Fold:
Amino acid sequence: MRERFYRMMDKRARREENEREHAEDRKARKLRKKQERQKPRERVDETRLEAEPEGSTIASGRRDAVVAKRALREATVLGVDRTRVEIDLEGERCFARRHPRLVSIVAGDVVQISTAVDGAHRAEELLPRRTLLSREDPARPGRPKPVAANLDLGVVTIPADRPRWGLVERIRAALRSGGIDAAVVLTKIDMVADGAFDEQLQAFEADGLPSFAVSAVDGRGIAALRAAIAGRSCAFLGHSGAGKSSLANALDPDTERRTGAVRRGDSKGRHTTSRSLLTVLADGTRILDTPGIRAFGLVE
Ligand SMILES: Nc1nc2c(ncn2[C@@H]2O[C@H](COP(=O)(O)OP(=O)(O)OP(=O)(O)O)[C@@H](O)[C@H]2O)c(=O)[nH]1
Ligand SMILES: [Mg+2]
Structure:
């Protein structure tokens, strides 16, 4: 009887001992897991990231951290479309994706570019702008929409066969508030009598607005305009059909920009140029051909 009692007690003691050991094991396992969770994250494998295509599964924050350590190179934005930017990267024309935060980059901007091992470029940062031309955003009245960055000169382009002078003052005001010089160019002078608008151009000159009369067809005035814009970053702005692309082609014959005939009835253009495109000439002059302006809204 006593023996049976001792055996029972012994069994119970062993069971309790077992349960204690199990509980300690469980506790140690839990602690180990907790410590593992708190350990600093494993380093990102940069070689993997370098080869990683856009939209990969690497978290964007980690990608940013690696990109920050990579060599970044400066590039000038030549043109912008919905997903990509065309850039001049150390003299080479190429395309880059853009970081999602770079929503409002425009032609003329200077950006920092990262390059993956597969050669894909991405615009990472926007550098401070020297000047900025903005107009009212037609989609959001009262809000500014950047048009072009880092311009030295904005040339209001008026066609001699259909001059609408009202545009000059509006664009001039926007240029002034963006810190950019203004000039006027009267195009298509081959379509009107010699000196037809000399008085108007002299009035602009007297008002501090350099003025030029040119023809992209017979070449008159092109040399004087080329000399005036030499070494500067210059945009042609005006209504569709004014002759901006034809003028840019005359100044920079190495780039073939599309031009389009005006409508027969009212001589209005057909919005042939759909996005601004900057070209850099051999002497460093930068020419920005822009799409035709329907209206140039100003914002304070
Ligand atoms: N006669 C004559 N025609 C010109 C001259 N410059 C341009 N044109 C014509 O005018 C039309 C419009 O020229 P574009 O250069 O396409 O005009 P744009 O301002 O770039 O027009 P968008 O791209 O629509 O804004 C074309 O048919 C050109 O051939 C010029 O100096 N003389
Ligand atoms: Mg054009």
